[in-house]
Amino acid sequence: MKCPNCRTRELVVIEMVVKGQPVALNNCSPCDLRWWQSDGAMLSLAGVLDLAAVGD
Ligand SMILES: [Zn+2]
Q: Where are the domains of the chain?
C-alpha cells in the first residue's frame, strides 16, 4: 500500500469494523492525506458515515 499522493509507504493503517463491514483508515503523515478503504476499494468519508448511520 502506497500513498496515492506522495507515494510513500509509511502509512498508518487503522482497521475497524463498521456495521459488520471491515473498513481501514489509511493515514499518510508525510503529506497528511487520509482516506478510507473497504474491500480494497477507496471509500469517501461520506460513504463511511453512511455505513455508520445505517441501522440502529
Ligand atoms: Zn502521502
A: 1-39
